[in-house]
Amino acid sequence: MQANMAGYGIETISVGVKDIILPGDMKTILAQVLEAEKAAQANVIRRREETSATRSLLNTAQVMENNPVALRLKEMETLERIAERIDKISVVGGLDQLLRGLINIQAK
């Protein structure tokens, strides 16, 4: 391009593109591609968050399995949240009695 312009006595320092006008179909296709990329990124983020939440639940379950006091505190926290929403609650025994067949709580 510089050689062509030099033939007319014009020195070219820089050339740039300011705007590109695409046909309507091309704009639609590019918009769909961008939307698909954003959806894929959102899906990856959502899966990472789900994995993190699952790991956190597993860690909590392991702590409670090895620590009956932590399990009791979680039980009381849950009962407190339930009690905020209802007028009357009766607790007979406790979580350790309700889940005796499912979770082996060992006092240390």
Automatic annotation (TrEMBL):
InterPro entries: Band-7_stomatin-like (IPR043202), Band_7 (IPR001107), Band_7/SPFH_dom_sf (IPR036013), Stomatin_HflK_fam (IPR001972). SUPFAM superfamilies: Band 7/SPFH domain. It comes from the Bacteria. Pfam families: Band_7. Residues 1-50 form the Band domain. It is found in: Membrane. Its main location: membrane. It is a single-pass membrane protein. One of its GO terms (cellular component) is plasma membrane. Belongs to the band 7/mec-2 family. This is Band 7 domain-containing protein. It comes from Snodgrassella alvi.
